[in-house]
Write a structure and sequence with these properties.
Radius of gyration: 23 Å
Number of strands: 5
Oligomer: single chain
Helix content: 40-55%
Distance between the termini: 87 Å
Strand content: 5-15%
Mean pLDDT: 89
Number of domains: 2
Number of helices: 6
């Protein structure tokens, strides 16, 4: 019995050292060496100041900016410590009211008729509540509003959207998408031609 207990303790110590120390340190070192940008959170900086992560959505409420997906993460949304969807089912009155409110807001913000189709990613939260991307259709839908608010040609804004469309990952996985933070940063740097 004592022999079995000692073997158990040895295995516990070895596995703790290997799985709890050596492996995590090796993976952290490898990630820092091979993918340092991603390993450090994919933080985007401007003027040596962090402005956000390429991987986590943020709230843009000004009409001068493209808006991302609604967020159900935390009370006010976009709370990375409360990442989750709403967990509301298709028969939930609260979900129906939220979607109806989001539809109304998108239509009002973009001066659309009450029957105009709207991409679902502008009215439904993602599973994490922190999705940083929208579909190209959702970005193009907002182009006129952004152009009007910034007093630039809508064609220029659409070209900026087109440049920021990312293809499927490795040409196979997912759908084409636009990173909202990167698009808004490019919009801030955009200079109209004289």
């Amino acid at each position: 019995m004592l022999r079995q207990l000692m073997n158990t303790v040895r295995i516990f110590v070895v596995l703790t050292v290997v799985c709890g120390l050596i492996y995590p340190l090796l993976m952290t070192g490898l990630a820092q060496a091979v993918f340092p940008f991603q390993a450090n959170g994919s933080i985007i900086t401007r003027n040596n100041e962090p402005v956000g992560s390429r991987l986590i959505g943020q709230s843009f409420s000004s009409a001068r900016y493209f808006h991302g997906r609604p967020s159900a993460a935390g009370e006010k949304g976009y709370d990375a410590t409360s990442s989750s969807g709403s967990n509301l089912g298709p028969t939930s009155k609260k979900l129906m009211d939220t979607v109806a409110g989001n539809l109304k807001l998108v239509r009002e913000d973009n001066k659309m008729s009450g029957t105009a189709p709207i991409p679902s990613d502008l009215v439904l939260a993602s599973a994490s509540g922190l999705d940083p991307d929208i579909t190209p259709a959702a970005a193009y839908l907002q182009a006129d509003r952004v152009a009007r608010e910034r007093m630039i040609e809508a064609g220029e804004v659409r070209r900026l959207v087109a440049v920021h469309i990312q293809d499927r990952q490795w040409g196979v996985f997912g759908e084409p998408r636009v990173n909202v933070l990167e698009l808004n940063l490019a919009l801030d740097e955009f200079k109209t031609k004289p």
